[in-house]
Amino acid sequence: MKLEAQDPRNTTSTCIATVVGLTGARLRLRLDGSDNKNDFWRLVDSAEIQPIGNCEKNGGMLQPPLGFRLNASSWPMFLLKTLNGAEMAPIRIFHKEPPSPPHNYFKMGMKLEAVDRKNPHFICPATIGEVRGSEVLVTFDGWRGAFDYWCRFDSRDIFPVGWCSLTGDNLQPPGTK
User: May I have one GO cellular component term (predicted)?
Assistant: First the structure.
């Protein structure tokens, strides 16, 4: 299915994307005119994905993705060919992103499930390693610190324990180091 998505490498651009994978509540997306090296994941209720036509309806213009493989002057024709006869994701399947919690309730040592940002197709068991204001340090259970990262407490890459089981996503086993 085709939809509009924010280019994760150029967040001011809205592009055409194709759903190339689905796992649980996450979509694997590929920007049309890009290659599979730049695929990215979004939750099905992400504000960064919209139905085809949303950009134009709001006065914007669809852009070629960063690294568009063809000459930029061929973009309008490419866009026309890409959308002609394509299966568009229907408006009814798009849902509003839930509101952020008002406060950071995380405490050091709490368990969670988190996207491995170096391998974003994986969701792994993790622990809150530190809390600083609105930021939390995500540490992956059984792995060295090279995979740890800081994020806001309301990041869409962190989930409560049991989220993968609830959504049908695969939870990776903890590491052994």
Answer: nucleus
